[in-house]
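Lab meeting, action items carried over

1. Structure of the four-component assembly. Owner: GW. Status: complete.
Input record:
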Amino acid sequence: MIEDLHSGVAGRLRADAQRYTPNRRAIVEILEATERPLTIVEMLGSRRLAQSSLYRNLAVLEAAKVVHRVTSTDGFARFELAEDLTDDHHHHLICARCGAVADFTVSPALERTLEEAMGRVEAVTGFRPEHHRLDLVGVCATCG
Amino acid sequence: MIEDLHSGVAGRLRADAQRYTPNRRAIVEILEATERPLTIVEMLGSRRLAQSSLYRNLAVLEAAKVVHRVTSTDGFARFELAEDLTDDHHHHLICARCGAVADFTVSPALERTLEEAMGRVEAVTGFRPEHHRLDLVGVCATCG
DNA sequence: CTCAGTGCAAAGGATTTGCATGCCG
DNA sequence: CGGCATGCAAATCCTTTGCACTGAG
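Predicted assembly:
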């Protein structure tokens, strides 16, 4: 199933007329190996890769819907693999103190309710929802 | 009830050993008059106020839990009055194209379910949730 | 050969801070 | 009077961009 991931990534890049270069594969592997969204600095620590190349490749991967940008309370962008590539729908615990982000999941029943709510929003407003973002903001174990 | 708002703000600032200055009151009034979170630029357009003073006062107001910072997809910070000051619990529609943010509400039943989920998270993880953030990300009427 | 990807360094832009001044308490 | 708020301008810092080089097809 690991190769499934990479062939999925390659497919999405191809659809965007983009190549699956070694740097891009390295980024995907870094994100694959973690359980939470990573910042630029965290990703740079893992492998030798120019900061600008990282930013540029993340932009390409984001446009191809391979990675997803996660926004926290600090000024640092964080990235994770797209949920529909990893079959791992989850939500985020965001620390209001330090900005750390961790993953968590909720019950299928709650997810179903959320999906229903999204459908209703589309019917009432002119807004067409693509996905939902349920984050819990609070204080993490370290800062607490 | 308008005065209730200002006395509530004054109280929270006092608790933080901060004054309720004219600039701070102006900021609260600007936010009170709108139905969606505002960016720095939008707030500057309303009244004559130095950019640095706006940033500094927003930091003070945020620390006193008078205003709340809303994060969108573009790089612009947005601010709204704290929900527990206005008795107006709502969520956000975030446009993935232009970053515009609008407010919306969901059913009380869904809210109750969300609160229950939050309680469960605290029991399982070391994370102590303060509030939840349910955003729908999609394409707004203008960009659609 | 061509053209996208890469790395380095410089630029960009939202946000923050230093400092002198003014005003509230 | 003392200290905080204010405004202006300069500095910060994450992020983006210009440019020359390299490598894959």
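2. GW to write a short summary for the group page. Key points so far: Chain B has a mean pLDDT of 91. Residues 89-144 of chain B form a domain with the Dna Ligase; domain 1 fold (CATH 3.30.1490.190).
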